[in-house]
Amino acid sequence: MAGSLLIRINVAIQRLELAIASVLGRRFPPDGVCLAGVQLEGAVSTPKPAFSLKDIVGDGFLWGVPTARRTIERRLKRKFGDPKYVLKILKPASNIRTCNVCGDDHLAGVLCPTCYKKVIDETKEMQETIQNELQLSPVEKEVVVLYQGEKDGKPDEFWEGKRIVEMQKPRPPWFSKNLLQPTTQQPATTSDVKPSDLG
User: Fold this and answer.
1) Shortest CA distance to 115 belongs to which of 98, 96, 93?
2) First CA to last CA across the chain, in angstroms?
3) For the segment 78-112, what is each residue's pLDDT rounded down to a tens digit?
4) Tag placement on the chain: N or C end, fewer CB within 10 Å?
5) What are the start-end ranges of the H helices in the chain?
6) pTM, entire model
7) Measuring CA to CA, which residue among 38, 48, 175 is closest to residue 115?
8) CA angle 41, 45, 49 (to 5 degrees)
9) CA 109, CA 102: separation in Å to the nearest integer?
10) How far apart are CA 176 and CA 111, in angstroms?
C-alpha cells in the first residue's frame, strides 16, 4: 500500500516538473538530479520469492508412478517369457554343421572360421609381398601374383605388359590358379526344384 502511494507521488512530481518547464520555457536538470535530495523510504521494490516447483504443481498434479508392486510371477515372465507365448530362455542351437575339410563345428550358412583363417593369412602375406615389391611406385600395369615355379609354364610374351610379383613358396593346394574357372559338375538334366523319390 505504502509502495504504490509513493509511486503515485513520484509520478505526480514528474508531471509537475514537465508542466513548470513548459510554462517557463526552460528545462530542468535530469530527473535523477532533481530528486537527489528526496528521501524515499520503502520505495525500493521487495525481492521476488525464489522459484519453486510447488507453486506450479500445487495440489493438482498426479505423477505416473506404480501403485502396486509386480509379483514374482510377473517379473519372471517378463524376464524369461512364457512357454505358451514367447519363450526367452536360451535354446540349444540346431543349425550347427561340421566342416568337411577340417572337422570344426560352425553355424549353417556361415563359412568355416578355421578354413577361412587360412585364406585370410594367405591374403595378408600376398598383400605384404606386393607392398614390398612395388613400394611407392605408381601402378600403371596389371599386377600378377605368381607362386614358385609358375612363371616357367607360359612363354615370356604372355607376361609382357604385366608387373609380376612372385611368392617364394609353392601355391597352396586349396588356392586355385584361376578363381573364375567353370565348375566341374555336370549341368542338371531336369528342371525339378523340389526333391523327388524321397519315399
Assistant:
1) 98
2) 106
3) 999 998 888 888 888 889 999 998 899 999 999 99
4) C
5) 2-24, 31-34, 53-57, 72-80, 113-134
6) 0.45
7) 175
8) 135
9) 17
10) 18
